[in-house]
């Protein structure tokens, strides 16, 4: 996959937030996520020894807070000029479960590329509530999975 202008803008958004808001050990990474209709939501990590959330998760929460629907792309950028950083294992799992078709922008700053999240998490663990519905879809890599558990409120779209 090649970088779109909107992907480059997403990297710029996360870079700007990292520069502006990541100025302490509590906040060291910024993330920016984009909806299909072009809205961008950002977040910073909330470091804490008890397991504070990564920037990607905070951006997902910010998007949900604003009533965003499906996210189609996300990127994280480190503080102190570290550039784009790939999502940790936990975030890969969260992104895959929430947005199976999301693209994650990874790579060095001179060679960025959007990658489907499923490619970042081969042989994926299937969240318990999904297991009975779609084990073959997972094994064959045929995303997206069926909708999220019915205990959740319906999305707005
Ligand atoms: Zn993470």
Automatic annotation (TrEMBL):
CMP/dCMP-type deaminase domain mapped to chain residues: 5-128
Family affiliation: Belongs to the cytidine and deoxycytidylate deaminase family.
InterPro entries in alphabetical order: APOBEC/CMP_deaminase_Zn-bd, CMP_dCMP_dom, Cyt/Deoxycyt_deaminase, Cytidine_deaminase-like
Protein name per UniProt: Cytidine deaminase
Gene3D superfamilies the record matches: Cytidine Deaminase, domain 2
Domain of life: Bacteria
Signal peptide: none
EC number: 3.5.4.5
Enzyme class: hydrolase
């Amino acid at each position: 996959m090649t970088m779109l202008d909107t992907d480059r803008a997403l990297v710029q958004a996360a870079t700007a937030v990292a520069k502006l808001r990541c100025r302490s050990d509590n906040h060291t990474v910024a993330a920016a996520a984009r909806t299909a209709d072009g809205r961008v939501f950002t977040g910073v990590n909330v470091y804490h020894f008890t397991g504070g959330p990564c920037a990607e998760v905070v951006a997902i929460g910010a998007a949900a807070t604003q009533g965003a629907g499906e996210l189609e792309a996300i990127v994280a950028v480190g503080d102190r000029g570290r550039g784009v950083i790939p999502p940790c294992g936990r975030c890969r799992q969260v992104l895959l479960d929430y947005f199976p078709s999301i693209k994650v922008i990874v790579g060095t700053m001179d060679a960025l590329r959007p990658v489907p999240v499923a490619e970042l998490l081969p042989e994926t663990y299937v969240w318990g509530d999904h297991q009975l519905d779609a084990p073959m879809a997972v094994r064959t890599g045929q995303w997206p999975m069926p909708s999220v558990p019915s205990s959740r409120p319906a999305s707005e779209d």
